[in-house]
Design brief:
- Helix 7 runs antiparallel to helix 8, helix 7 crosses helix 9 and helix 9 packs parallel to helix 11.
- 59% of the residues lie in helices and 0% in strands.
- By secondary structure, it is mainly α.
- It contains 12 helices and no strands.
- It is elongated and about 60 Å long.
Length: 293
């Protein structure tokens, strides 16, 4: 993947509440009516915590650290959706504070798992903004908390892939597949990293194991196109279409290859965190091939 440029930042803002107004026209007679208690205010369109609402069964109870954690994680994701990285990272920092060592009411083992999750998600946010030095620090902090977390190893391998660090990517992704042999995303990423490093045959075997023979040819074609090997990429796209003519994404990839410059790395890698649209497209193609198997 190529480095991503800076994005416009937008804040998450709530919409104002609307108040209903009753209008009485001239000549209308209002009969005396029993006064009713005013209706409770409508909730804001901002993220509603719901923890201190009088209608909540937990009203009046202390807010648990796990609840605070989930709120900050949701707010971080909402900020990411608005491309507000600064706000997202701030919410992740607050989430970490909820699970800091020594916080009452949280078991140390559970706190470690939660901190690992927050560090991993924070690293993914930094990756999407091409801040790789900072993301690497977050991945290492995540692994310090949970060294056996396959998703962290996968996402760190994906990060190395984005930077063109094929050897480090293969090491991290191999660890991910070792910890979770059923993780098709990690297997696919490993195959892509191997292909980018020049191990075409080994990459094909790993990609075929992760999906189907047709999807392996297609994904291998993506990687070869991304490094400028258009003739080799064309051969794999055509083979994918020969094996599975209904694989539309392979036909689309071949057409794109003929139309313009080679596809870039970011079009093929897949991570646990939300990725670029074309990354999801490759994943859908793999799923498409599996369904037709």
């Amino acid at each position: 993947m190529t480095a991503m440029g800076p994005k416009d930042r937008r804040s998450v803002r709530g919409l104002p509440l609307l108040a209903a107004t009753l209008l009485v026209g001239p000549g209308c007679v209002l009969l005396p009516q029993k006064k009713e208690a005013p209706a409770p205010p409508k909730p804001s369109s901002q993220v509603n915590l719901g923890l201190n609402s009088p209608h909540s069964p937990d009203f009046g109870k202390p807010i648990k650290p796990e609840q605070q954690l989930n709120v900050h994680l949701d707010l971080a994701r909402a900020a990411e959706a608005q491309e507000d990285m600064e706000q997202s990272l701030e919410q992740y920092q607050k989430a970490l504070a909820c699970m800091a060592p020594g916080v009452k009411g949280v078991k140390p083992a559970a706190a470690q798992v939660s901190r690992a999750l927050v560090h991993r998600r924070m690293a993914g946010t930094l990756d999407r903004n091409a801040q790789f030095e900072q993301s690497e620090q977050q991945y290492k902090l995540a692994l310090k908390e949970a060294p056996g977390d396959a998703k962290t190893w996968n996402d760190m391998g994906y990060s190395y892939y984005l930077q063109g660090k094929w050897e480090q990517a293969q090491m991290a992704l191999s660890k991910a597949t070792e910890l979770d042999p059923q993780d098709k995303r990690a297997q696919t990423n490993l195959g892509l990293a191997m292909a980018a490093a020049g191990n075409e045959q080994g990459a094909f075997e790993v990609l075929a194991k992760a999906g189907t023979t047709a999807s392996a040819h297609m994904n291998l074609g993506y990687v070869l196109a991304s490094v400028g090997k258009k003739a080799e990429a064309r051969r794999h796209f055509l083979e994918a279409i020969r094996i599975q003519p209904s694989l539309k994404t392979a036909s689309e990839a071949l057409a794109q290859l003929d139309r313009g410059p080679a596809m870039r790395d970011k079009n093929v890698a897949i991570a646990s965190a939300p990725g670029p649209e074309l990354a999801r497209k490759v994943e859908r193609a793999s799923n498409e091939a599996m369904k037709a198997k």
